[in-house]
Structures are given as C-alpha cells and as structure tokens.
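stage 2 :: seqdesign
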C-alpha cells in the first residue's frame, strides 16, 4: 500500500511538472506576441498521448499514433516558422517530445519504432530553428544540446527495449523447457505403465488356458497400470492447462517414497522385485535428486519388461555413503523378450537418463553386473551434499 501511494505521488508530481512546463510555453508565446494556437495544438496532442489513462484509451490510439501525431504537428509548426510565421519553442514542448521519443523507441512495434523515433528526434532537434533562424552560432548550439538529449533518451529507451526483449525470450524459453520436461515426464510414466499392460496382457493370454485360477491377479495388475497411466496423463494435462505460479510444483514427478510404490506395482507372478533400501538413506534429499533417482528406477524397470522379460528376479538398491546416493537396478535376465518390435522403444531412454544424471553432477552406468556374465545393472551415483 505504501509503495502504491508513493508511486501515485511521484506520478502526480511528474504530471504537475509537465503541465507547468506547458503553461510556461503558452505564457511566453503570449508575452512575446507570437501566435499561441500552434503551441496549444502541439501541447494538446502531446498531453493526450502521455496522460490519457491506459485503461480508458481507445484501441485506435496506438503508440505509433500517439507519438507520431505530436511529432508531425511540431514539425509543421517549425516549417511554418521557416516560411515566415515565426514562433517560439519552450521547455514544455521539449519535455513532451523527449517523453514521446522514449515511448516510440521502447513501445512502438517494428518498423514504427524507427519511424516514430526519427519523427520525434527530427521535431526536437529542429525546434530551435523557429527562433534562431538568423543566429547561426546559437542555432547550432541549441541543436547540439537537443541532439545530445535525443541520444541519451533514445539510447536509454533502446536499452530498456532490448532488456524487455531478452526477458520475453527468457520467458518463452523457460516455458518451452518446462513443456519439454512435462512431455518427458508424460512419456516416462505412460511408457512404463503401458509396457506393463502389454506384458501382463500377454501373460493373461497364456494363463487363460494353463492357470485360469491366477488370472484375476494379472487382470487386477492390468487395471491398476491402466488407472495409473490415465491418472498420469490427467495430471500432466492439468499442469499444461494451469498457468498459475504453482503449476511447476504439480508436475507428475516422483521421489524416493514413490520408488516403493513403483516396485510394488511392477511385481508380477513370474517376476519377483525386491527393494533394498539402506536405512541410512535420508528422506530430505534435494527434490531434483529424488526425482532423478525415481526416473532411473522407472526407466530401468521399464527396460526389464521391454528387453528382459525372462528375468525372474529384480533388485532395486538404494545406498547413501560419503555424501553420494547410489541407485541401482539389477535383473538376472538374459535379454529374452516376447514384446513386439514396435514396443521395444527407440533406445533413447538411457540417453535421456544420462543427461538428467550428469546435469546433477552424477554418473550413470549400464551393463552387466560386476563379475557376472549374465544379467544387467543400471547404476547411478548422485552427489547429495549430505553426510
């Protein structure tokens, strides 16, 4: 409230100065017996452009019209002076043209910013010619002063315009990066659940004739995976639609607690999954580390279904030693799979994981477990900063 009050006071003070400067122009023209109406027209157009409230400004009163009309009127007054109808120039018109120059350079769309900026600069620099037509040294001196003020105000407006552009580009890039991250999250979640649905559907077809009594468990798993996939898509679409400041916090990312749910949902009648979590692993690790660890486990389990359907045992290991979190997923498969070729994925999952892990200063390794010729292990190390 205090800040708004101070801002209003400053605005009222600036308006008062502008009006006083305009009054000085009109009084000076009256005292010198010069025509008053040319100054009144220029000042009226300038005050309209500057003081008309933005909320009540009509659509046709664009920045280029606001800044160009007063500049053209000023140039016409100067041209009339050169043709014999001598007039004055004063502080009110000078301040107005400088203000309009600032608006033109900063706010007008291209190429109007250049056109209106040149018009205002030309009007400002040429105003001394109204009075000093026969005094060349004074004319050049005043024009030089006007040129310096024009360069200062125009340069400041151009700098602020470039800052506005950079800020707008940064916002665009941030939104683009966030949407790409959301798309990656959606791919990770849905691919994981859909792969599970595919595998369990194949299993259900085989068990329908061999072990029908166990079929209900498999169908329940399919139902759960489908529900989770739909929920993930619903959350993601909700985030994309939500533009509020907390939208990023509701992205469908996981954490260390979610790994346990991931493991429980992965288990099937033919694959036993074990979560081996060291009690020393803290629960308050950085959110980005927990999310990346969740992604490692999720991608590794998805790859087990895609590429190692013959695996009977899978172990998810979490360790925390020496300020580093170790996440490992080991399976005993030999690479046998019955999935269709189209369901194998594009081979970019580990590439994306490597980028995610290395971005956090960690390291990712995928290959056979140490000292073994069979099986496969995905292991990631993350710095956590916690002892």
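stage 2 :: out
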């Amino acid at each position: 409230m205090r800040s708004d009050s101070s801002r209003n006071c400053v605005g009222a003070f600036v308006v008062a100065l502008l009006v006083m400067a305009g009054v000085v122009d009109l009084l000076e023209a009256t005292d010198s017996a010069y025509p008053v109406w040319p100054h009144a027209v220029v000042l009226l157009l300038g005050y309209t452009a500057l003081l008309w409230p933005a909320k009540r400004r009509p659509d046709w009163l664009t920045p280029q019209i606001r800044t160009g009309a007063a500049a053209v009127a000023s140039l016409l007054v100067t041209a009339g002076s050169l043709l014999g109808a001598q007039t004055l120039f004063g502080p009110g018109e000078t301040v107005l043209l400088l203000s309009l120059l600032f608006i033109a350079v900063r706010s007008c769309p291209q190429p109007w910013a250049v056109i209106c900026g040149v018009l205002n600069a030309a009007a400002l620099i040429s105003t001394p010619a109204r009075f000093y037509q026969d005094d060349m040294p004074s004319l050049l001196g005043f024009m030089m002063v006007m040129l310096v003020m024009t360069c200062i105000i125009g340069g400041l407006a151009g700098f602020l315009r470039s800052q506005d552009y950079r800020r707008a580009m940064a916002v665009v890039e941030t939104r683009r990066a966030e949407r790409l991250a959301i798309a990656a999250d959606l791919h990770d979640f849905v691919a994981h659940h859909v792969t599970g649905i595919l595998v369990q559907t194949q299993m259900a077809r085989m068990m329908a004739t061999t072990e029908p009594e166990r079929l209900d468990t498999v169908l329940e798993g399919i139902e759960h995976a489908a529900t989770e996939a739909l929920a993930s898509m619903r959350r993601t679409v909700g985030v994309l639609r939500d533009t509020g400041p907390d939208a990023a916090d509701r992205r469908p990312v996981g954490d260390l607690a979610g790994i346990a749910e991931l493991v429980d949902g992965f288990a099937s009648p033919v694959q036993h999954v074990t979560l081996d979590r060291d009690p020393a692993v803290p629960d308050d690790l950085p959110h980005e580390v927990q999310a990346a660890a969740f992604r490692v486990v999720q991608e590794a389990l998805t790859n087990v279904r895609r590429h190692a359907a013959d695996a009977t045992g899978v172990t998810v290991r979490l360790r925390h030693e020496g300020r580093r979190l170790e996440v490992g997923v080991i399976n005993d498969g030999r690479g046998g799979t019955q999935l269709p070729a189209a369901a194998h994925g594009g081979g970019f999952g580990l590439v994306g994981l490597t980028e995610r892990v290395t971005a956090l200063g960690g390291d990712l390794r995928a290959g056979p477990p140490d000292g073994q010729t069979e099986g496969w292990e995905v292991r990631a190390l993350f710095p956590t900063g916690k002892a």
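stage 3 :: structure notes
- Residues 254-387 form a domain with the Heat Shock Protein 90 fold (CATH 3.30.565.10).
- The CA atoms of residues 198 and 339 lie 8 Å apart.
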